[in-house]
Design a protein that fits this description.
Mean pLDDT: 96
CATH topology: Fumarylacetoacetate hydrolase, domain 2
Helix content: 10-25%
Bound molecules: manganese (II) ion
Number of helices: 6
Radius of gyration: 17 Å
CATH class: Alpha Beta
Number of strands: 17
Structural class: alpha+beta
Low-confidence stretches: none
Oligomer: single chain
Strand order of the largest sheet: 4-3-15-8-9-12
Length: 228
């Protein structure tokens, strides 16, 4: 096939004992930890978690430098457990998600231009420019489920320059992974290669140039990103 210009290369993540994982789309869950929902001014009892997206091109590989993005003075990292799917579909039953659909897990950062997000929220406008900017989805290599097991609990933590900012447990997620994949597949058809950033615990705060971010989820490779 000839194109008008060369098509963009496929974005991949390394995966332990596997060929690289081709990333198709990135879905994110908003306000999926009660403590973070409260710090964002939501009521976790009444406001349900929701979905938004970033493009696959927003992936930044582990151990990279993230150039400080334009149009913000309040860049904030959110540590998140990432679920990688190797099977898609519509109306996926929750009880089939763990073994049939989940390829593995990674640690990601949902980088956020918080000042733009607050302004968009206040005006009822879309979040894309606050959430889906260049390099806004740093992510580790994927640990296949065969090695990681089904992750339903475990410590999730974010350190900046060695100091703990966010600390929680993935067991505190409101929408658990099986229900999350099932619910998302009711909204859109899912495909192999889709990633889901599953939400963040409380403690979000700005980073500045030169900061070193270390994001961890128990049992998975740590994510280390420097702000450039
Ligand atoms: Mn997030």
């Amino acid at each position: 096939m000839n194109y008008a210009f060369p098509p963009a290369p496929v974005v991949t993540l390394d995966a332990m004992s596997s060929n690289p994982f081709p990333v198709r789309r990135i879905f994110c869950v908003g306000q999926n930890y009660p403590d973070h929902a409260r710090e964002m001014g939501a009521d976790p009892g009444a406001d349900e978690p929701f979905f938004f997206m970033k493009s696959a091109g927003a992936i930044l590989q582990n151990n990279a430098v993230l150039p400080y993005p334009p149009h913000t003075e309040d860049l904030q990292p959110e540590v998140e457990l990432v679920v990688a799917l190797h099977k898609g579909g519509r109306n996926i039953p929750a009880e089939r998600v763990d073994y049939d659909y989940v390829f593995g897990y990674a640690v990601g950062l949902d980088m956020t231009r918080r000042d733009l997000q607050r302004a968009a929220r206040a005006k009822g406008r879309p979040w894309d420019m606050a959430k889906a900017f260049d390099h806004s989805a740093p992510c580790t290599a994927i640990t296949p489920e065969f090695y990681a097991g089904n992750i339903s609990r475990g410590k999730i933590e974010l350190k900046v320059n060695g100091e703990i900012r966010q600390s929680g447990d993935v067991g505190d997620m409101i929408l658990k992974i099986p229900q999350m994949v099932s619910t998302l597949s009711n909204w859109v058809e899912l495909f192999p290669g889709d990633l889901i950033f599953t939400g963040t615990p409380a403690g979000v705060a700005p980073v500045v140039r030169g900061d070193v971010i270390e994001a961890t989820v128990a049992g998975l490779e740590p994510l280390i990103i420097t702000i450039g």
